[in-house]
Amino acid sequence: MQEGSLLVDKFKDEVGTVSWSWLRPHEKHGSLFQVAEELDLIEVAVEVAEDRVTRIKTWLENGDLTRPIPDQVEEWNKVGGLFSGIIVKPYVFFKPVVMGGE
């Protein structure tokens, strides 16, 4: 469990806000995955780094981890956007940044 804790700290330092132009090359290479709103980006990164295949497979099957669909890519190519992103080689995981509150 200590290793997982170290990974959490490591990934907290590595997660950042990125633009679509930064994510786009990863999408073109097929290494980009969108993380569902209800999942924690750091938790996903840790699970992937620790190769927890069963959990990752469940997320993929449930649609909690998806590759961007062409309509999303087209929209982001037009208007851009801000995202939280993290690299867990060879993959990149991201979530749209939600702006504003009430």
Structure in words:
Strands 1-4-5-2-3 form a five-stranded mixed beta sheet. The chain has five helices and five strands, in the order αβαβααβαββ. Helices cover 50% and strands 23% of the residues. It has one domain. The protein has 102 residues and is of the alpha+beta class. A hairpin with a 2-residue loop joins strand 4 (82-88) and strand 5. The chain has helices spanning 2-14, 20-28, 41-49, 53-62, 70-79; strands at residues 16-19, 32-35, 65-66, 82-88, 91-96.
Give short descriptive properties of this protein.
50% helix; 23% strand; 5 helices; 5-stranded mixed beta sheet; alpha+beta; 102 residues; 5 strands
N-to-C span: 38 Å
What string gives the helices and strands in order?
Answer: HEHEHHEHEE
Q: pLDDT under 50 segments (min length 5)? A: none
Largest sheet: 5 strands, mixed
Structural class, by secondary structure, is alpha+beta
What proportion strand?
15-25%
In a few lines, what is going on in this structure?
With 102 residues, this protein is α+β, with helices and mostly antiparallel strands.
Which helices and strands, and how do they pair?
Blueprint: H1 2-14, E1 16-19, H2 20-28, E2 32-35, H3 41-49, H4 53-62, E3 65-66, H5 70-79, E4 82-88, E5 91-96
Parallel strand pairs: 2-5
Antiparallel strand pairs: 1-4, 2-3, 4-5
Helix pairs in contact: 1-3
